[in-house]
Amino acid sequence: MSTLDATRAELALAVLYLNKAEARDKICRAIQYGSKFLSNGEPGTAQNVDKSTSLARKVFRLFKFINDLHGLISPTAPGTPLPLVLLGKSKNALLSTFLFLDQIVWLGRTGIYKNKERADLIGRISLFCWMGSSICTTLVEIGEIGRISGQLKKLEKDLKNSEKYHNEQYRAKLKKSNERSLALVKAALDTVVAVGLLQLAPKKVTSRVTGALGFTTSLISCYQLLPAPAKSKAA
Question: pLDDT under 50 in the chain at which residues?
């Protein structure tokens, strides 16, 4: 493959990536929390960027609650333990509620919804829902990692150590375990971000800590949304 062809392929992947509304939202989220880290809660340019980007992101999330509402009523994968099913459905319900209430917050901040006190209360309730969904996600990922770990150990017994990395099923489960581990880290950090936004522990989870962790989870989200590179064709 020539340098020009490689450049075209990379640009095609970039276009594919940026065409996703979710990807653009996560890039904006990184800007938002990066600005929060820089401002440290102090008035100035960084705080203005934080607030304006936060408001802009809410447009990307209009009617997004339907996604998790669909997940809530969809059947789960066969063989999933009941506790994980319940946690997964709770996550869907809480996240869908957060995204729905967030639309009312957007209406309040744009001046369409005039009751500021109620809009602020709804905003706080929505953040509690997001924190709850992050906790549920954390528990689900811990449970799923445990299940995959058991499956990997079973495969290791059936395969020789020198052969396990050549086994397609083993490699697929190992990849899934790594993806779940990254999702676990993201969900756990997002729980702390929610604590910071709600100011439940203002002395420990400061605006700067919230910004740093939010920026980190935004980068993880951006990475998770990267499209798989196209496999080069054999000559």
Answer: 232-235
